[in-house]
Amino acid sequence: MRFQNIAVAVDFSEHSDRAIERGAALAKQFGAKLHLVHVYGSAVLAEAMYGVSIPTNLNLEIRDAAAKKLEAVAEKIQTDGIDVESHLIYSTAAEGVAQIALKTEADLVVVGTRGLTGLKHLVLGSVAERIVRTAPCSVLVVRDDEDTDD
Questions:
Q1: How far out from the chain centre does Cα 99 lie?
Q2: Range with the poorest average pLDDT among 3-17, 40-54, 91-105, 127-141
Q3: Is the dihedral of CA 29, 11, 41, 140 positive or negative?
Q4: Which of 9, 72, 88, 90 is spaced 20 to 30 Å from 99 by Cα?
């Protein structure tokens, strides 16, 4: 398979750093465009669950801070000669990543995982697992084998 567009879910954790590294390596290998996707909006959950309204200036501050961090990641990747584009979306994680993957016609989504098992997985669920179920293309889940929590 030849990749033309690769989307990487970015949450600024060590787990997504590994996904970014893998996605960037694949983009470089295949000459693909790398799409960094950061979904912000924990406030989305509060709005949906409790019907509360989050002040506009708070959402703007969150967006602006996320945009700066995402752009720094993109600039670092560009120094390796990789064509990269940043996408910032206000949504829930899995839905937002799926939306951008569809919009960019991604051939692959790369996502990191914390590797939760047992009760923590049952209670917290897995964003990576939801992305696998909702993405419109193949998903590569990058996991650090040393990183398992029971």
A1: 11
A2: 40-54
A3: positive
A4: 72
149 located within any domain: no
What's the token pair of residue 109? 């989504």
* Distance from the Cα of residue 82 to its chain's centroid: 18
The letter for the amino acid at 89 is: I
Q: Tell me whether residue 133 is exposed, middle or buried, using C-beta atoms within 10 angstroms of its C-beta: 0 to 12, 13 to 18, 19 or more.
A: exposed
Q: What's the structural domain count of the chain?
A: 1
Which of 118, 127, 124 minimizes the C-alpha distance to 150? Answer: 118
User: Which residue type, as a one-letter code, is found at position 81?
Assistant: G
Q: Output the pLDDT for position 117.
A: 46
CATH number at residue 112: 3.40.50.620
Q: Per residue in 30-61, pLDDT tens? A: 999 999 999 987 555 566 666 677 677 777 88
Domain that holds residue 99: 5-143
